[in-house]
Amino acid sequence: MARLLVVDDDADVRDLVVGWLRVDGHDIVDVGSGALAMGEVDSGGLPHLLVFDVLMPGMDGIALLGLLRQRDVDLPAIALTVLWSSADMARVRAAGAVYVPKPSSGGELRAVVRRLLGGRAALPGGRR
Q: Is 103 exposed, middle or buried (0-12, 13-18, 19+ CB in 10 A)?
């Protein structure tokens, strides 16, 4: 299956998301900040897909996605966020991510992950 990177500063949310996504057999790395996510990418390579919170201390999720897109412009990304305004949704979409609101169901998130992965899900061992 695919290697996913889940980035959220709320450990409870990360645990919930990881549990949902492991149902489909994905290899998941979860971290609590944009800086830790970049460290994980530097040491372990790019994921097949990024799931991120927008509002995080330090580096926000949009900035993180921007840095990762410098390495792979086609990296699929999902913003799992409490931001609901049309301006916030437009900002997420302008960054090239799919908007999924918090709270969301595991089934909804898993369906978006499957749709975005397409052929990438078959890539073994993460992306390098």
A: exposed
* Residue type, position 67, single letter: L
125 pLDDT higher than 60? no
pLDDT digits (tens, 9 = 90+) for 41-100: 999 999 999 999 999 999 999 999 999 999 999 999 999 988 778 888 888 999 999 999
Residue 20 DSSP SS3: helix
pLDDT tens by residue, 22-36: 999 999 999 999 999
Looking at domain 3-122, its CATH superfamily turns out to be Response regulator (3.40.50.2300)
* CA 122 to each of CA 1, 21, 24, 57, 84: distance values in angstroms, whole numbers, following the listed order: 6, 16, 12, 34, 33
- Residues 57, 32, 52, 108, CA torsion sign: negative
Residue type, 112: V
Query: Residue 103, preceding bond cis, omega within 30 degrees?
Result: yes
16-36 b/e (C-beta count within 10 Å ≥ 16 → b)? bbbebbeeeebebbbbbbbeb
